[in-house]
Amino acid sequence: MPITKMAKIWMDGEFVDWDDAKVHILTPTLHYGWGAFEGVRAYATDRGPAIFHHRAHMERLHRSAAILQMDVPYSVDELMDATRELIRVNGPESCYIRPLVYLSYGEMGLNPLPSRVSVSIAVWPWGSYLGEEGLVNGVRAKVSSWQRIGANMIPTGAKACGVYINSALAKVEAIKAGYDEAILLNENGYVSEGPGENVFIVSDGVVLTPPLSQGVLRGITRDAVIRFAGDLDIPFAETTLLRHDLYTADEAFYTGTAAEVVPMRSVDDREIGAPGPITKQLQDLFFAVVKGKEPKYDYMLDYVNG
Fold first, then answer.
1. Do 8-124 and 132-290 fold alike per CATH?
2. 220 in helix, strand or coil?
3. Which CATH architecture has domain 8-124?
4. pLDDT tens track for 137-151
């Protein structure tokens, strides 16, 4: 999905013109993937832009960096302040937000520790990651031939830059085969997650999702949907899922900041069908919350203009 150019990008405490937001070709992050990032969304509301679970995202960014032994030179509050101001400077009513912790130019090699840590934040308007059609009618998913990396290969609990080569391989394979998105299994053959999403199914009225121990990133939208299910008295459980559980599910859906809440209408050409009632209920509540229509959940929103 093309990026819409904005006026400014925040880089190490300064608002830099979009076209001047550059790093050196010899940054070790480009060469070795040593970095951490977040995907965050701000939504248009009656009170102006509101960032969904802003603090949770910036706290996860700090945790990811800590796992990689990168000392972020800005606190969570400082990053939140910078993001709000960046949105005000650029002016979008809704946007995608991409904070990045990376290594600056000056050192090279597989030891990242001597390199200076830098941070940037960019924002731009961004539509539905898997398309408006997918949001309404569901997407076609394919179980990838690429396995989800194991937690003792690369820490799956970190949203680390280089990890996403694994995700991109699965995504490209699915698209080239004519599907919309992929699902990765882990080294033991259990369902893990999508390339950039968590995976849920509904079976006999119970919402099920793999536990974090299956190589799953703890998604912030995942956590919100689990909370919504509890509040709606929808039975929920974390459990290991096999490939055939996807094929026999009554409903299935992805969650993620980019994807939001997206139904699956088929997996490996096994038809699940139109979005089911539980998926639709959770999806409707999610969009009502992020648009500021559910005061009960206002604590999940950080209003940019206060």
1. no
2. helix
3. 2-Layer Sandwich (3.30)
4. 999 999 999 999 998
Q: Where are the domains of the chain?
A: 8-124, 132-290
pLDDT, average across residues 41-49: 98
Amino acid occupying residue 144:
S
Architecture of domain 132-290: Alpha-Beta Barrel (3.20)
Cα angle 36-114-66, degrees, rounded to a multiple of 5 = 35
Please report the pLDDT score of residue 306 as a whole number. 87
Helical residues (DSSP H) of 33-143, grouped into ranges: 54-67, 76-90, 132-137
**Closest residue by Cα to residue 158 from 96, 225, 212:** 212
**159 belongs to the catalytic site:** yes
Pick from 89, 83, 87: nearest CA to 45: 87
The model's pTM is 0.96
Q: Which residues contact 11 (CB under 8 A, 6 or more apart)?
A: 21, 118, 119, 120
Active-site pick, 5, 8, 142, 159: 159
